[in-house]
Amino acid sequence: MPESLKQVSVLHLPVHLCRDYLSWLRSRLENGQTTHIVTLNSEMAMLAERTPQLTQVIKQAELVIPDGAGVIFYLRLRRHQQQRCPGIELAASLLEHIGQVPSFPIVFYGGAPGVAQKAAYYWENRSPNLNITAYHGYLSPSEEEQLKDFLQTTQPRVIFVGLGVPRQEYWIAQHRHLCPQAIWIGVGGSFDIWGGVKSRAPMWLRENHLEWLYRLYQEPWRWRRMLVLPQFALRAFVK
Ligand code: UDP
């Protein structure tokens, strides 16, 4: 019996606390219980605050994990001793788990043309049991129809969607009925990392909650999006 989730609130959004998210997800997977995983960071929380549609999608998700250092900071100020759970790491643990036995189909959807395919090769080389079908994230409307047909006929049990926030959250909310037993997770730029197009921050930066700084160094155009981070920190103290 996996540990149950404890729901708390971060800027009026749900966040689910748990020591072992993977065990909780394994049980959902075994029982065919559909699950939308949202990986909440401060940028997304601030965006949700001014976007009711995103708030609604996050509230409907069965699992909202504390992905960002800002969210952990917010929780610690309220005496919740939760460890950070980066979405890319939970997604990787899920793939490692699924790869242990000859298993059901999986879909990677998102990223520039060729990248999700490279990410799929990376994972299939590591775990030959994995059976991944990759679609890039810039499909034409007719190609997207083909993807939807594929989902409906193949019924993959885990669908990784890397279209960026909030597009991936909206896409999952709109299409999750197509595979009613699946786990759906928005993975942002994870395919870029697994596909070798980008790299993650070195461990010492991650351990010091500075992964966002490395992203800013790699993708300076993010500075405008990141202006909300100090606002989030301020809100953490106030509310
Ligand atoms: N992307 C996509 N389709 C789009 C827009 C973006 O597949 O129409 C992909 C993009 O190639 C990148 C990912 O979405 O791989 C967004 O990554 P990012 O790290 O910016 O995600 P976020 O910070 O929003 O979680």
TrEMBL record:
Superkingdom, taxonomy of origin: Bacteria
InterPro entries: WecG_TagA_CpsF (IPR004629)
One Pfam family matching this protein: Glyco_tran_WecG
Keyword Isomerase carried by entry: no
Signal peptide: none
Keyword annotations of the record: Glycosyltransferase, Transferase
Protein name according to UniProt: WecB/TagA/CpsF family glycosyltransferase
